[in-house]
Amino acid sequence: MGETGLAVTAVGGYLGHFDYRSGSGRATRRFNSAATIVGGDGHAHRARRLPAG
Questions:
Q1: Given a cut of 80, is residue 44 above it in pLDDT?
Q2: What is the DSSP annotation of the chain?
Q3: Burial of 37 by CB count in 10 Å (0-12 exposed, 13-18 middle, 19+ buried)?
Q4: Contact predicate 13/33, CB 8 Å
Q5: Structure pTM?
Q6: Which residues contact 50 (CB under 8 A, 6 or more apart)?
Q7: Cα torsion at 20, 24, 26, 30 (round to 10°)?
Q8: Could you report how far apart the first and last alpha carbons of the chain are, in Å?
Q9: Which of 5, 32, 35, 53 has its CA 20 to 30 A from that of 17?
Q10: Is the pLDDT of residue 48 over 70?
Q11: Domain tally for the chain?
Q12: Are 41 and 2 in contact, with CB atoms under 8 Å apart?
């Protein structure tokens, strides 16, 4: 997550997935997981969604 300045320190449980059509019309499936991240302030935060893959 370099572009955000955040670092993932732990990946938690599977939160589910959803299907959608990409801008080009291709069928796409997005998988989501929980994650613990550390921000630029050095404090840990819980992320609600982390796309897998």
A1: no
A2: -GGGT-EEEEEEEEEEEEEEE-TTS-EEEEEEEEEEEE-TTS-EEEEEEEEE-
A3: middle
A4: yes
A5: 0.52
A6: 8, 11, 32, 33, 34, 35
A7: -40
A8: 13
A9: 5
A10: no
A11: 1
A12: no
Q: Which domain holds residue 8?
A: 2-52
Distance set, CA 26 to CA 19, 20, 21, 50, 52 (Å): 10, 8, 5, 21, 18
Smallest Cα–Cα separation from 41: which of 9, 8, 6?
A: 6
> Nearest to residue 8, comparing CAs of 41, 53, 46?
46
Asked if 32 and 15 count as a contact pair (C-beta separation under 8 A), the reply is yes
* Token representation of residue 9: 């320190």
Q: Whole-number mean pLDDT of the chain? A: 79
